[in-house]
């Protein structure tokens, strides 16, 4: 790798960088993190965007949905992640009911994410109804990433994690919402679990980057939950997740070998003693 290329790889990613990447046809790479160590490794790997997702509720806290995670939880995990990152853009998820009540609450809570946890942007779910909040946050200097399609915080409304926008009526609403978010000032939009053709259409129509998760290859970038793609979270395996490792199985094997070595007296050995 040349020195010039290496400098480019390590260049700090900003919201402007993502727009430039879209314009240049360069795919955006995003993953989630919830702790310092994982964040460091993602940053070392050259991941462009690290999302401190409210998915922490499921993959770390062991809960059934993302709905119950609190703002204090997100502030804590976002602070851990931010301390481990030099290059990537760190985005903090705004949890359920931290931004839906009114714009003042949303601004106050987003401000805490930026000031206390040192994230560089926040993400919120919703379309046209949430756009006044998006506009207010952006006007205050807080970059906002939108999220449409399957929005996990609305799971009780949807009743399932099925693909969204499969009807023309719902697809029309999603197109309208995506345009509204971009017009309100969102610097990027996540599209989750929608038909690939629709995601590609929206990506081509909008000037802002569109990052897909279960939305096909026509988006400007892709995001997955790190615990899913590493094989750490195995309670279910969505079709859109490609497993790049099976760390859950490797960890289980390591724990069992350690237990066996302790019980047989093989650990610690002479070289591991003082």
Describe it.
This protein has 274 residues and is of the alpha/beta class. The chain has two domains: 3-243, TIM Barrel, CATH 3.20.20; 246-274, no CATH class. The protein is built from twelve helices and eight strands. Strands 1-2-3-4-5-6-7-8 form an eight-stranded parallel barrel, surrounded by seven helices. Strand 6, helix 10 (196-205) and strand 7 form a beta-alpha-beta unit. The N and C termini lie far apart (43 Å). Mean pLDDT is 93; it is low at 1-5.
Write a concise keyword list for the protein shown above:
eight-stranded parallel β-barrel, 12 helices, TIM Barrel, 274 residues, alpha/beta
User: Could you give me the name of the CATH homologous superfamily of the largest domain?
Assistant: Phosphoenolpyruvate-binding domains
Secondary structure tally: strands = 8
Strand content: 5-15%
* Classification by helices and strands: alpha/beta
* Rounded mean pLDDT score: 93
Oligomer: single chain
Shape: globular
**SSE pattern, N- to C-terminal:** HHEHEHHEHEHEHHEHEEHH
For this structure, the CATH topology of the largest domain is: TIM Barrel
Q: What kind of sheet is the major sheet? A: 8 strands, parallel, barrel
Write the layout of secondary structure elements.
Layout: H1 3-10, H2 15-23, E1 28-32, H3 36-44, E2 49-52, H4 56-59, H5 71-82, E3 89-93, H6 103-117, E4 121-123, H7 131-139, E5 144-149, H8 155-158, H9 168-184, E6 188-192, H10 196-205, E7 210-213, E8 221-224, H11 226-229, H12 247-264
Parallel strand pairs: 1-2, 1-8, 2-3, 3-4, 4-5, 5-6, 6-7, 7-8
Helix pairs in contact: 3-5, 5-6, 6-7
């Amino acid at each position: 790798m040349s020195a010039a290329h290496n400098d480019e790889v390590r260049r700090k990613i900003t919201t402007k960088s993502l727009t430039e990447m879209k314009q240049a046809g360069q795919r955006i790479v995003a993953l989630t993190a919830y702790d310092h160590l994982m964040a460091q490794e993602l940053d070392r790997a050259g991941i462009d965007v690290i999302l401190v997702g409210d998915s922490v509720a499921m993959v770390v806290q062991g809960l059934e949905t993302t709905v119950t995670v609190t703002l204090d939880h997100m502030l804590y995990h976002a602070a851990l992640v931010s301390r481990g990152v030099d290059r990537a853009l760190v985005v903090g998820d705004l949890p359920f009911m931290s931004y839906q009540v009114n714009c003042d609450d949303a601004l106050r809570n987003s401000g805490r994410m930026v000031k206390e946890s040192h994230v560089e942007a926040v993400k919120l779910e919703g379309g046209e109804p949430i756009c006044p909040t998006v506009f207010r946050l952006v006007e205050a200097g807080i970059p906002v990433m939108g999220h449409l399609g399957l929005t996990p915080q609305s799971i009780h409304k949807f009743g399932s994690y099925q693909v969204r926008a499969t009807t023309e009526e719902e697809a029309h609403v999603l197109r309208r919402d995506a345009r509204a978010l971009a017009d309100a000032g969102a610097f990027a939009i996540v599209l989750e679990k929608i038909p690939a053709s629709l995601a590609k259409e929206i990506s081509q129509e909008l000037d802002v980057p569109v990052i897909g998760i279960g939305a096909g290859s026509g988006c400007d970038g892709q995001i997955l939950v790190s615990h899913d793609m590493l094989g750490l979270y195995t309670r279910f395996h969505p079709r859109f997740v490609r497993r790049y490792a099976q760390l859950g199985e490797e960890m289980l094997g390591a724990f069992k070998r350690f237990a066996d070595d302790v019980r047989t007296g093989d650990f610690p050995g002479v070289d591991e003693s003082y």
